[in-house]
Specification:
This protein has 478 residues and is an alpha+beta fold. It is 39% helix and 26% strand. Helix 10 packs antiparallel against helix 11. The longest helix is centred in the first third of the chain and has 62 residues. The protein binds adenosine-5'-diphosphate (ADP). The site of adenosine-5'-diphosphate has 12 residues, from helix 2.
């Protein structure tokens, strides 16, 4: 009995304690939440202050600057020089955007949603004010030019057609200054080019999405605009039509030989259509180059993983004594082939820097118009990083290799030795998935033989397709 009572007492006490604890817990939790909130507010306030400071700097810079009197000495068709956009809510959507575009180029701005693509395009079109920086179009200082005087034509994702007007009327809209015959001739030509002649009498509601987008393009074509600005024009179309319109747009560009700036979040569109790609992230240009350059020589991890599908395999490795060791213990040697790749990469960086120095020189004063020292510094850092590697230092790196840049030999030994977890036949090739210390590793190999889950063997990397990235900055080392 005594024993039982005791036990009950103990239980009671503990349950009382729990109630007490709970209150204290609630109180503590509340205090913690309040502290967290205060910390968050403080951070937000600091961030707002930082944005304000940054925005003020951009705006002040503009006050001392009026670019209209000094046209750069180049024959480029569009020159965007240090463009910045700060919205009224202090969001700095575009940061120091500089790009020269030659006549006839098809430039694609690509990046994830919110990276500032549309804002850049809209500044070029004149639909958004430029906060700072200079814009020249076809030899004119364009910052203050009215949109209609810029010689640009814009095509939007939403088509923006007048529903109560026929296709013909939609295309003729705004061509009032031209004679009737001229308008007719232009529409006939554009309609044939875009294969919409038979729909000219229809209203937009009687057309499919693809046909509407052709009409929207037609409106730009009849204007004989020197510069086409296209903002995600294919996003509303289904996958099959998108592929078809992609090639039609390339053909249209070949026919018209005009200059196009095209905005998309779809890396495939960028790769297939552009003569030059500009990759953006958080309002900052990450890389400018031909589709091949950007694909083969991505400047950082962001570009490497954004461009290409399936995405590049990125493996965190440790290097020491000339060996690059992967998470499963397999390693590759920093051998002559890799050293040769480094040398090539270094030559490429040096060459592009020299070319830029040539191009960006002020003809009169001889001053170099870009921050050569800063860039030189970048090259030096690049060499330092890479030579650290060569002289057998120790550290972590990211190794990048695209799925198609490996071979897989069942039963053999390779750089990585693993067994297939999932095998997907995609027609002419297999997509093979492996488990590399908990990370999905993908190989794309020709379907000359059959591969199945459980096949064990060696994956070998093409030496000249290995990319090495700095762990901290994510920048390409070589
Ligand atoms: P993208 O076209 O790459 O998706 P946007 O140029 O539309 O990106 O937007 C870039 C950034 O600017 C985003 O953070 C977006 O929220 C912001 N932004 C866009 N338009 C406005 C606006 N009118 N006012 C304030 N912020 C805006």
């Amino acid at each position: 009995m005594e024993e039982e009572k005791k036990e009950i007492k103990v239980e009671e006490t503990s349950s009382n304690e729990e109630t007490f604890d709970y209150k204290a817990y609630k109180k503590r939790k509340k205090a913690e939440e309040a502290a967290l909130l205060a910390e968050q507010w403080k951070k937000e306030k600091e961030e707002r202050a930082r944005l304000n400071r940054e925005a003020r700097l951009v705006i002040e810079h503009e006050k001392f600057h009026s670019g209209d009197d000094k046209f750069p000495d180049t024959d480029d068709f569009v020159i965007a020089s240090h463009l910045n956009k700060v919205y009224s809510n202090k969001i700095r959507a575009v940061k120091d955007f500089s790009l020269n575009i030659k006549k006839g180029e098809f430039v694609v701005l690509v990046g994830p949603s919110g990276c500032g693509k549309s804002t850049t395009l809209r500044m070029i079109a004149g639909l958004e004010d430029i906060t700072s920086g200079d814009l020249y179009i076809d030899g004119n200082y364009a910052n203050k030019l009215d949109p209609k005087d810029r010689g640009v034509s814009m095509v939007f994702q939403s088509y923006a057609l007048y529903p109560h007007l026929s296709v013909y009327e939609n295309m003729a809209f705004g061509l009032g200054g031209l004679g009737k015959e001229e308008v007719k001739a232009r529409i006939k030509e554009a309609a044939e080019m875009l294969q919409i002649t038979e729909y000219l009498d229809r209203k937009p509601t009687q057309l499919s999405g693809g046909q509407c987008q052709r009409v929207a393009l037609g409106r730009a074509v009849v204007r004989h605009a020197k510069l086409f600005l296209l903002d995600e024009p294919l996003s509303n179309l289904d996958a099959k039509l998108r592929v078809q319109m992609r090639s039609e747009l390339v053909k249209l560009h070949e026919d018209l030989q005009n200059t196009m700036i095209y905005v998309t979040h779809d890396q495939t569109e960028a790769m297939t259509m552009a003569t030059r790609i500009v990759v953006l992230k958080d309002g900052v240009i990450q890389q400018i180059g031909s589709p091949k350059e950007v694909y083969d020589h991505p400047s950082n991890l962001f570009v490497a993983t954004f461009m290409g599908s399936p995405t590049m395999n990125v493996i965190k490795c440790h290097y020491k004594d000339g060996l690059i060791t992967m998470p499963n213990g397999d390693f590759i040697q920093f051998d002559d082939e890799l050293k040769a790749k480094f040398k090539k990469a270094y030559n490429r960086v040096e060459k592009s820097l020299m070319e830029r120095r040539e191009r960006d020189i002020d003809r009169e004063s001889g001053d170099v118009l870009f921050d050569f020292d800063a860039d030189l510094d970048k090259v030096e850092r690049f060499i330092r990083n890479a030579s650290n590697f060569v002289i057998d230092n120790e550290g972590d790196i990211y190794l990048g290799i695209r799925p198609e840049d490996v071979t897989f030999d069942v039963g053999e030994h390779g750089d990585l030795n693993m067994k297939v977890e999932v095998s997907e036949l995609l027609g002419a090739e297999y997509s093979l998935h492996y488990d590399l210390a908990g990370q999905d590793f993908v190989a794309r190999v020709p379907a000359k033989q059959m591969y199945k889950a459980g096949d064990a063997g060696g994956i070998t990397f093409k030496r000249d397709q290995i990319h090495i990235f700095d762990v901290e900055s994510g920048n390409l080392v070589f």
